[in-house]
Amino acid sequence: MSKIGKKPIDIPEGVKVKIEGQEIEVEGKLGKLKKTFPQVIKPVIKDRQIYVKFQGKKEKKPFWGTWHSLIANMMKGVKEGFKKELELHGVGFRAQKEGKKVILRVGFSRPVEYQIPDDIEIEVKKNIISVFGRDKEKVGQVAAEIRKIRPPEPYKGKGIRYKGEVILRKISKKAKAGK
Prior knowledge:
alpha+beta; Outer Surface Protein A, domain 3; four-stranded antiparallel β-sheet; three-stranded antiparallel β-sheet; elongated
């Protein structure tokens, strides 16, 4: 039985929730989010709280906790938003924002341009790229796409990594031979 799915989700002040059929729409100061949920999930609003009810076969039970978390993230997203930070590590690695593009100079012969999606905001300061938005899934996806341009390599640690991410370093063949 899902321990997360049973718990009620509090609706914060300034957030409006509307459930119609199989769609839930959440509106707050940062905008609107809308998701369509499967038939086995039935959210019910009671006393400024949402209860996620499960109705279906036992095999579909993992949906219960997942949808509870998705609805809770929608509430937090329209009220506060989500933020992911990336760091550039490497000599001469830099980024700059120009309009709706981020231009990355990360050791390739030409700069790489990344087109910023409409509902995502990106801020660049020195070697840190901040990705901000109301949809947690989209913020994570954009951060992953930027990281994928030049993922950190295990020998020198150069590349784009999440802030605070630890890269396990390998010993080079030269260092091994010198022993």
